[in-house]
Structure formats: structure tokens, C-alpha cells
Design goal:
The complex is a heterodimer of chains A (310) and B (317). Chain A is mainly α. Chain A has eleven helices and two strands. Chain A has one domain: ABC transporter involved in vitamin B12 uptake, BtuC (Orthogonal Bundle). Chain A has helices spanning 18-53, 60-78, 82-108, 113-139, 164-186, 188-198, 200-205, 210-235, 243-257, 262-283, 288-302; strands at 154-157, 160-163. The longest helix of chain A is centred in the first third of the chain and has 36 residues, at 18-53. Helices cover 78% and strands 1% of the residues of chain B. A two-stranded antiparallel ribbon of chain B has the order 1-2. In chain B, helix 4 runs antiparallel to helix 5.
């Protein structure tokens, strides 16, 4: 993971006195939580699509990337504030998701569940390849990041410093997850989506338009990816090749959390963020990814249903 | 039903191997290195696709960490070969290391089913890639003396032998008890277990065979390339390419991955030359179209077309 706050991630073992080491560790945990919230948001969309359509969209990271570049364009060309850009990126992603469902994944879900997974992997790879190539053409292969006038602002609590932008991103991520939770719990179509996830044949028998539920779930999942991308572009950095990394991160969180609980997914995201930060502190920056993945594989093998799965 | 399929598969095996025999003459007829490099790429792709086909096509376990075994084979073979071990032995060692590693992690990985196995193995591949990238960040280049003695035809014949071995392995597997047991697991693991198939043991054997072949292919890669980053053969694109070629051709068939690999390499090279800037975009879109239009790959599409052409009125379908 490339972050704009690279120095902070450095090994903290050089700290001479214990007090400073503790502060550094607490700082790492705070930064881990802030990043983990975005992991949770990135994973929520994937979890919804995987849980409801039973397809594995490996191009989810590329959808996150598109959301990031959407905000980047609005900022660079029209001077929009990245947080205000969410107002356009979210509906735009919703529409993109609907188009992708009608054009691609709608064909995939016609197949039997076993074949669905495999075909969705294939379509996802093709889509990831195409979107990656498109992004390189449109925005070049460089890392980009949105720098606002308040980008450098830091909130100091005791000895901890908290970047304001990342704190705002965490709050927005949580608000979106909470909104999704309410939507799934209260809204008519939210209930239909949950029923379809539970057992699509039973849902069909009770008169639920399963295809519509699929379409909505995919569109909402894409919208969440777009929102996550926007928040990544402002607090961290985006590039056309970020897709696989974020897909993997989202998959890790989805599997850790288990399917069926959006709030659980958010908590699992925070958990992964902190675990990565702590492992970076213990083993050095380059290994943060490895340790995160190892924890993931161990949990996956010991508890395949996830920590919060049903 | 089954004998007919076995007969057609036998015909395909003979046909493919005859094709390989013809390719053995190529270095004598053609002096152009670009042609030999191109065919070598196809042969390496056939081996990789066929190796993935064993675990995913026959045993039904979608292994998304296949690159890890290709990479392990490359790393082992390269290290031994540069250290003075004869290349064939070094490649065999690469295959062995890949298969042993697969058996070590297989027992745990096979606790996972379906999509979870796919996700778990994808993570496993990334763990190895990131670790190798951290431990060996420097590019690996052959010593000058070795570059001076570099003969493309040696690499070519090794690639040819390996591709033939992969086809023979799958042909032998497809008709054997072992292969039938794997296919039973692919169709319904619980039902296979209930009828006396030891699923875990068979899946482990499929994984060992598949990863051993991938390791040998990795060894060939290490022998062929003059310089590359040690983490490169661990990259996820090797898994994806094996998967794409296998599915384009026809997963779980003998000749599907061979046809898929040939088509894939031709298509990719052609698009690269024809549309330099847009080739990946076009390739991605084309690939999606193939998956959506022929979900069972070329083999199934051809089968369907043949059945439609030969169907007589009144004949049972």
C-alpha cells in the first residue's frame, strides 16, 4: 500500500525510550484504523455483490479506481472539492454498476451457481484488464492524489496527530455503511435483496423480482466502490494498477467478516487496518502486506465462515 | 457415451503429439529467432495452461495461486542452474520443490471449498510474491559466460518436450481411475466421497501433479530468460493467463488448453502489433465477449455446432 504519509509507516524499533515507542505504536494504530475504515467500505460493496449474486467480481478494485479518477477529474477539471464530488461519483457509479450488470454480469447469473463463480472470475479478469488499459490511456500510469487546501491539516490529540482528511473519510465511510445497513434492514427492496441472498429460489416463490434485486445489489456495490475510490484519492493515492491490490484487500475483509453483516464488514476492515499497521511496526514496512495476508489465510482455514458470518 | 469421448480424445492426443513432432523439425528449417521465440512462447503457454487444467479442469479446484508454483520452480531451477547443476536436473528440482510445497499447504487449503479455495489460494500466491519481492529485490541476470553460450534451440527443445509431457500427462490422467475420481469430485464432492472416492487424497495428488508441471514450466522460464526480477514469475498474471487460455479453449478437456493457448498467444501478439496502444483494451473486451458467447470455451462451441449439423430428424439428441 502506497500512502502519502510514508515516513510514519517506517519501523518504530529505533525509538530509544519506552514512552516514545508507545506513542509511536498508538499513532500506528490510529493510522491503521483510519485506513481500515476504507478497507471496510471497499469490502462492503464486494460483500454485497458476492453475498447476493454469488459472483466474485475480481474487477471490484478497478471500480474503486474509476471512482477515484472520477473525483480526480472533477477536482482537476472543474475544481470540485473531493468530498463534494461524492455527490456525483456515487450516482455515477450506481449507473455504471447498472450498466455493467445489464451488459455483463446479468448473463453470468443465468448459469448454475458453481459455473457462476468461474464465469464471473473470467468476466472480471477481462473487465479488469480493459479498465486498467483504459485508465492508463486516459490518466497515464502515474500515481495521483488530490491535494486540497486543507490536506495538511492535522488534529492533535495528546501526542497523537490525526490527519483531518483521513478522519473525515473514516466518518463518511462509516456513515455510508450505516446507511447501507438501514437500507437493507428497512427498505422494501433492501429486504428483497436480503431474501435473495438467503435463498433466491424461495425469494422467487414469494414473488420477489430476483433479477431486479440482483441489479440493485450490483449497482449499490459499485456505488460503494466509487465512494471508496474517491476517499482513497484524497487521503492516499490512486493509480491505474491499484485494482488488484484493492480487490485482494476487499476480499480479505469480506472473508474475515463473513457474509451477511455490513457492520461486521466495517469492523473487519478496521481490524485488517490495525493488524497491518502493527505488523508494519513489528516487521518493517515491506512486510505489512504479507502479515495481513498470512493472518487472513490462517483465519480462513480455521474459520471459513468468517468472524461475523452466519 | 464415454467410449466415444475417449476415442476422440485419443485422436486429439495423437494429433497434438504429431503436431509437436512436426515442430521438432522447425529449428532445422527456419533460422529466424523470432519464429522460434514465438513458438517457444506458445509451448510454454500450453504447459502452463495444461498444468492448471489438471487441478481446475479435472479436479474442479479453481487454484488462483498457480503463479506461486511457477515462481517456485523458476527460483529453484535458476538458483541451482547458475550454481552449476545441469539444467534438466535443476528443472526437475524446481518441479519437486513446487509439488512438495503444494502438498504442505494443500492439506490446509483443501479445507476450503469453491470460491473460498479460490480466494485463499489467490492470497497465498500474493504472500509468496510479496515475500520474494522483499527478500530478493535485485534483478537476476545470467553471468556473461552463460550468455555467451546461450543457444535458443536448446530452450526450444526443452519447451517442446515439456509441452508434450504435459499433454501426455493429461491424456494418461483423463482415462485413468485417478482421473475419473478427480472428475467425480469436480461434479459433486459429497457424492464422490459417499461412493468411496477419497476426496482429500485425490485432490492432493491432482495438486501435486499440477504444481509439479507448473514448477517445471517455471524452470524453463528461468532457463530461457536472460534477466528478470525474481518476483516476476510469481506475478498473478501467470495464473490469470493459464486460466484464460484454459477457459477460452475448454476447461476439463485434453485439447481445449492447447487450442486456447495457441489462440491466446496469436491473438495477443497480433493485437499488440496491430493496435500498440489499445491492444490490452481490445483484448479485454474480446475476451469478455468470448466468455459470454461461448461459456464452455471453443471445444464446447465446436461440439454444439457439430451436433447441430449432424442431427438428423427423428434421431435422439
Amino acid at each position: 500500500m502506497r500512502t502519502s504519509a510514508a515516513p510514519i509507516w517506517g519501523p518504530s524499533r529505533c525509538a530509544s525510550d519506552d514512552g516514545r515507542a508507545v506513542t509511536l505504536l498508538a499513532q500506528q494504530i490510529v493510522l491503521g484504523l483510519l485506513l481500515g475504515g476504507l478497507y471496510g467500505l471497499a469490502a462492503a460493496g464486494l460483500s454485497l455483490v458476492f453475498g447476493v449474486l454469488k459472483v466474485l467480481n475480481v474487477a471490484h478494485g478497478e471500480l474503486i479506481m474509476l471512482g477515484g479518477y472520477g473525483a480526480f477529474w472533477l477536482f482537476a477539471l472543474l475544481g470540485w472539492d473531493p468530498f463534494a464530488a461524492l455527490l456525483l461519483v456515487i450516482p455515477g457509479s450506481l449507473l455504471l454498476g447498472a450498466v455493467l450488470y445489464v451488459g455483463l454480469f446479468g448473463f453470468v447469473v443465468r448459469a448454475h451457481e458453481e459455473i457462476r463463480i468461474k464465469n464471473s472470475l473470467l468476466v472480471g479478469f477481462g473487465l479488469a484488464l480493459a479498465l486498467h488499459a483504459l485508465a492508463v490511456r486516459l490518466w497515464t500510469a502515474d500515481d495521483r492524489s488530490i491535494t486540497t487546501p486543507y490536506s495538511g491539516a492535522v488534529l492533535t490529540v495528546g501526542e497523537l496527530s490525526i490527519p483531518v482528511i483521513r478522519l473525515g473519510s473514516l466518518a463518511i465511510a462509516f456513515a455510508l455503511i450505516a446507511a447501507l445497513h438501514l437500507l437493507l434492514a428497512r427498505w422494501r427492496w433492501g429486504k428483497a435483496i436480503r431474501a435473495t441472498a438467503e435463498d433466491w429460489q424461495a425469494a422467487l416463490l414469494t414473488g420477489i423480482d430476483v433479477r431486479r434485486a440482483y441489479l440493485l445489489a450490483f449497482a449499490i456495490g459499485t456505488a460503494l466502490a466509487g465512494a471508496a475510490g474517491t476517499l482513497v484519492s484524497v487521503g492516499y493515492s490512486i493509480s491505474p494498477s491499484m485494482g488488484l491490490e484493492w480487490t485482494l484487500k476487499a476480499l480479505i475483509v469480506v472473508v474475515l467478516a463473513g457474509l451477511g453483516s455490513m457492520l461486521g464488514t466495517f469492523v473487519a476492515g478496521l481490524f485488517v487496518g490495525v493488524a497491518e499497521a502493527l505488523s508494519a511496526a513489528a516487521f518493517g514496512g515491506p512486510y505489512r502486506e504479507v502479515v495481513g495476508l498470512v493472518i487472513f489465510v490462517v483465519v480462513l482455514v480455521l474459520r471459513p465462515r468468517g468472524l461475523f458470518g452466519r | 457415451m464415454r467410449p466415444r469421448i475417449a476415442a476422440s480424445e485419443r485422436a486429439w492426443t495423437v494429433g497434438i503429439l504429431a503436431g509437436f513432432a512436426g515442430l521438432a523439425l522447425l529449428p532445422l528449417l527456419v533460422r529466424r529467432d523470432d519464429v522460434l521465440n514465438f513458438v517457444l512462447l506458445i509451448l510454454l503457454s500450453i504447459t502452463l495452461a495444461q498444468s492448471w487444467n489438471i487441478i481446475a479442469g479435472y479436479a474442479g479446484q479453481v487454484n488462483l495461486g498457480h503463479a506461486a508454483f511457477f515462481g517456485l520452480g523458476a527460483l529453484t531451477a535458476r538458483t541451482l542452474w547458475i550454481g552449476g547443476v545441469p539444467v534438466v536436473l535443476a528443472m526437475a528440482a524446481g518441479a519437486l520443490v513446487a509439488a512438495v510445497f503444494a502438498l504442505l499447504i494443500g492439506a490446509a487449503a483443501f479445507r476450503l471449498r469453491g470460491a473460498y479455495f479460490a480466494i485463499g489460494t489467490l492470497a497465498l500466491g500474493e504472500i509468496l510474491r510479496a515475500t520474494v519481492n522483499n527478500v530478493l529485490p535485485e534483478i537476476s541476470t545470467l553471468p556473461a559466460a552463460t550468455i555467451g553460450a546461450y543457444r535458443l534451440s536448446q530452450r526450444y527443445y526443452l519447451a517442446l518436450g515439456l509441452a508434450a509431457a504435459s499433454v501426455i500427462a493429461v491424456a494418461a490422467l483423463a482415462g485413468s481411475r485417478l482421473g475419473l475420481g478427480m472428475q467425480a469430485i469436480r461434479e459433486d464432492e459429497d457424492a464422490a466421497e459417499a461412493s468411496g472416492v477419497g476426496a482429500l487424497s485425490l485432490k492432493l495428488r491432482a495438486l501435486a501433479l499440477s504444481t509439479g508441471l507448473a514448477g517445471a514450466a517455471g524452470g524453463l522460464f528461468a532457463y530461457y530468460h536472460i534477466s528478470y526480477y525474481p518476483s516476476h514469475p510469481f506475478g498473478p498474471h501467470w495464473t490469470f493467463e493459464a486460466l484464460l487460455m484454459t477457459f477460452i479453449g475448454g476447461v476439463g478437456t485434453l485439447h481445449g488448453p492447447v487450442l486456447g493457448a495457441v489462440l491466446y498467444v496469436f491473438l495477443k501478439e497480433y493485437l499488440t502489433m496491430r493496435w500498440v496502444d489499445f491492444h490490452l483494451l481490445i483484448f479485454g473486451v474480446l475476451f469478455i465477449a468470448i466468455v459470454l458467447i461461448f461459456p464452455g470455451g471453443l471445444v464446447q462451441a465446436a461440439e454444439g455446432a457439430r451436433r447441430r449439423l449432424t442431427r438428423r430428424p427423428g434421431a435422439p439428441t
